Amino acid sequence: MSMRVDQLATDLINNAKLADPAIQEAYLTALRGMLLSTGQRLSPAVLSKAGETLQSMMAGAGTHSSMLKEKKRLRLSASI
Known about the structure:
Helices cover 81% and strands 0% of the residues. The chain is built from four helices and no strands.
């Protein structure tokens, strides 16, 4: 099951990086839910990739306030 969870997280991360801002928020919300419910089963490599991706996305978020709020919530969820 862990491999499936890792693959889903990787897909959400990759799609969030490539998506338009409106759709990106949906991917980040899904990733947040996944981290909250199954984060303990993710491999360290996938968790690290998620953290790096979120940090880079936050740095480039600009002024899109709803996206910034969701990214901050994700960062807090990832640290749990």
